[in-house]
Amino acid sequence: MMNEPFLKERIVDETAMSRRGFLQGTGLLLGFVLTGASTGSVFAAATSQVVENEITGTFAPNGFIRINPTGAVTLVIPMIEMGQGVYTSLSMLLAEELEVTLDQIQVQHAPPNHALYVNSIIGIQNTGGSASVRAFWTPLRQAGAVGRNLLIAAAAKRWNVDPATCRAKNGVVFDATGSKHLSYGELATAAAKLPVPPAANVKLKDPKDFSLIGTRAKRVDSPIKVDGRALYGIDTRLPGMKVAAVAISPVLGGKAKKVDEKAALAVKGVRQLINIDEAVAVVADHMGAAKKGLEAAAIAWDDGPNGKVNSADIVRQLEEESRKPGAVARNVGDVAKALAKAAQRVDAVYQVPFLAHAAMEPMNCTVHLQKDRCDIWVGTQAPTITQSQVAELTGLPKDAIKIHNHLIGGGFGRRLEADGTILAVKIAKHVDGPVKVIWSREEDIQHDMYRPYYLDRLSAGLDTAGQLVAWMHRIAGPSVMARYYPPYFKDGLDPDAVEAAAEPPYALPSIHVDFVRVEPPGVRTSWWRGVGPTHNVFVVESFIDELAHAAKQDPVAYRKGLLGHNPRALTVLSLAAEKAGWGSPLPARHGRGISVQFAYGSYTAQVAEVEVAADGSVKVKRIVCVIDCGVYVNPDTIEAQIQGGTIFGLTAALHGSITFKDGRVEQSNFDSYLPMRIDEVPVVETHLIKNAEAPGGVGEAPTAIVSAAVTNAIFAATGKRVRSLPIDTDVLKSSS
Amino acid sequence: MAFTLKINGTPHEIDVDGDIPLLWVLRDVLGMTGTKFGCGQALCGACTMHVDGQAVRSCQTSVDSVGDGAITTIEAIGKTPQGAALQKAWLELEVVQCGYCQSGQIMSAAALLKDTPKPTDDDINAAMSGNVCRCGAYQRIRAAIKHAAGV
Predict the structure, then answer these.
(1) How many Cβ pairs closer than 8 A exist between chain A and B?
(2) Which of B54, B18, B145 is nearest to A678 (CA)?
(3) Spatial distance between the Cα atoms of A113 and A538, rounded to a whole number of angstroms
(4) Which domain holds residue B42?
(5) Single residue among B46, B72, B98 that ends a domain in this structure
(6) Taking the domains of chain A in order of start, what are their residue ranges?
(7) For A519-539, what is each residue's pLDDT tens digit?
(8) Residues of A in contact with B128 (CB under 8 A)
(9) In terms of pTM, does the model score above 0.90?
(10) Has domain A233-304+363-438 been given CATH number 3.30.70.20?
């Protein structure tokens, strides 16, 4: 069976790519496509289509559009699909201006190419930061308009008429009378010969003329995801491919000191045991044999320098370091003076835990390392970073590193890191032929790069009327940015670690926010859905709730009083309160909590309604979410993100915690790192604000906002303030 | 050991140790990758298949335990009335996000509807709480099951 792979990819080298040369230096364009949702001929595992990038006469005016003379329209999508709906929403931007329908297109993963596909908000070709629509809102509409203009120009030339008299619709150009028409396929060869105008010079549609943007267009990736045809990295199959199970040192920096290779090789189907010190891999014909072989290897580890790392020490270090001043993120007014003069002072310490991503698709990567090239089959949020790191590791030029990106079975930031690929390449160095390395769920959870543990100290001053006069917020924790993208880490300040804390939406006469970098030993930290705001919005929105209580004011009214200058924040807050029935009576030990945020370019407000049982257990009964994300592309996808992103954040608030003992992660699978399940989740109601503001990000907004809405609701229900996550139900027990 | 597995109506000859999980036989030996690996401990439901119409976690089902049971996977569930109705509902309600868990979700839901054509919320909770969706698409999964069942 291994000799008959049904995933066949055709790799087209850059030299053969395009006459226009716009792809010079790109590596490759992998030919793997999704076709439109409603054609009924979507790409399938067994019948995967290949994009012929060099069919003579292919119209390729930029990095995003390929139309060949047969009429096939392929859109190359610069950001990777991992559930957020970006293959649909970004296709909609292109298709709107190109004048094609979504069922006329195929979608293709973009290869690594900074020049063509950089995300302008992030500065890298990374999918993250809720930035895809924000970054590509203009470039993709321009790219589509360039394509349409050229196709119209080609038709006008053939008819010898003024292009201004022609129009395009559904992949066809019509003349003024509508009697003459030519399909895009018929025009592709001629259009490919025309000079490409600068994207900035093309006229874009007036939003009132949008026919696709703003509609509930069907997702282009749904049909292949309901019948098993969708291919993720873990589904890679190649001729001669072997499968490897891997055990990574349970302590960061440890080494395998004893391995029973003989026992592993005795397992039927096992081909090879590879010990690279930091990890041991067993290579076999199939994963069942590889796992069995790995168990038989009975590895003993030398823990190395991090064998004593434990959570209590990490927290103690944060408590100590957070007493020292940090790098100043923002300073307005004289906070110390205002605090000293305040009629009432409120102090609090907040903590949030390390979190694993625990995406459903465990970490995996397939590598075929050859003398002069290295092929990588993986789902990655960071293709250019992955390519660079593999080039560095192998000593091969970047162009020789071929990244075949895939649909990702849940990213949440985990696939912004290339560590899984690097490990697979280290293993592949010892394997003759392609090898697919798959992490077990336990490896995935115990060797994640975790959302940092943060400890925050806050102080605020209120005047006699309860008015907020001073706000001081110190954040202590690791800096992901300093490691991941050093240029953004300046003078000790990590802009991500203070995001949504340095600039709360409120009018604050004096504010001081600083950051103390504390790197725990033996722990790798990284991006996690919602990044900085997921931590900071919990802290800021909980603390503002504490201040409302100290001022003896209603939490919604108190916030409104601080948002007079911020109409968009005020609007989402007011609507969320109204839709949730804020203020209407609730039974005992029930409560509502509110949270509001500005992050990722969007304004969001949530109201959570909870019931706290006598045993302290928390039932979240209802979530109302209002989002103003400016002009929106696909309201159905946005609602899906609000629903799912809320559950992702809620799961962390209720259950999420990674802890360390003797250098080892104490959680291992879904029985110790608990996901929310269908019987536990509330209904999430979503309300979208319609306006013409610049588009804002959506995917992370609900994840960041939900924790505080819930803990504020718990306070309303019980009078107990939750200042650390996950929520400790023991302290919420009824005292009666 | 040699086994003959009846999968989606077709017999397949394989030669593996009897304790190898069905999941890896299908994915790696037979190349049927629609069924997903999620946890390896029957904790997430991503690997759900049917054996004689019953939902099983194939990561914890050894190949020698199947006997001549009829195996049905996501690749063929659309040929059953429940599977077809669920897939249609999944598309109409746009349930999927990353999609990785959805093979298992649909397989569990198909087993539910076969035994309980008109499920209550409690029935859905009982049948579906073994299936994890980290994208958090549960609200739509529930709605789609009801939609497919006409309740």
Answers:
(1) 211
(2) B145
(3) 37
(4) 2-72
(5) B72
(6) 11-225, 233-304+363-438, 312-354+450-732
(7) 999 999 999 999 999 999 999
(8) 677-679
(9) yes
(10) no
What band does A19 get if pLDDT is binned at 50, 70 and 90? very low
The pLDDT tens digits of the residues spanning A699-732 come to 999 999 999 999 999 999 999 999 999 999 999 9
In this complex, is the C-beta atom of A237 within 8 Å of any C-beta atom belonging to chain B?
yes
From the list A104, A105, A94, the residue with the least C-alpha distance to A63 is A94
Q: How far apart are CA A87 and CA A77, in angstroms?
A: 7
Task: Tell which residue, A317, A246, A307, A236, has the closest CA to residue A278.
Answer: A246
Residues B58 and B102 in one domain: no
Same domain (yes/no): B82, B123: yes
Last residue of a domain, one of B38, B72, B106: B72
Q: Which of A227, A410, A678 sits opposite B74 (nearest CB)?
A: A227
> Residue A55 — very low, low, confident or very high, per pLDDT cuts 50/70/90?
low
Query: In the structure encoding, which two tokens stand for residue A180, read together?
Result: 């003459």
Q: State the DSSP H helix or E strand holding residue A425, giving kind and residue range, or none if neither.
A: helix A419-428
This model of the complex carries an ipTM of 0.98
Q: Give residues 18 to 77 of B whose Cβ lies within 8 Å of A.
A: 19-21, 23-25, 27-41, 43-44, 46, 73-75, 77
Q: Is A424 helix (H, G, I), strand (E, B) or coil?
A: helix
Domain co-membership, B95 together with B129: yes
Distance from CA of B70 to the nearest CA of A (A): 19
- Cβ contacts of A1 on chain B, cutoff 8 Å: 29-31
Question: Which of A446, A445, A453, A380 lies closest to A418 in space, CA to CA?
Answer: A380
What's the confidence (pLDDT) of residue A736? 61
Let me know whether B34 and B68 are in one domain. Answer: yes
CATH tag for A11-225 (out of 3.50.50.60, 3.40.640.10, 3.30.365.10, 3.40.720.10)? 3.30.365.10
Question: Using CA atoms, how far apart are residues A542 and A712, in angstroms rounded to an integer?
Answer: 6
Written as six digits, the tokens of A618 are 């928390």
Kindly list the distances between the CA atom of residue A20 and the CA atoms of A51, A144, A274, in Å, as whole numbers in the listed order: 18, 17, 45
**Quick check: B87 contacting A, CB < 8 Å?**
yes
Interface check for B133 against chain A (CB to CB < 8 A): the answer is yes
Of 3.30.365.10, 3.20.20.370, 2.60.40.10, 3.40.50.2300, the CATH number of A312-354+450-732 is: 3.30.365.10
Best B1, B138, B145 residue to mutate vs chain A (most A CBs within 10 Å): B138
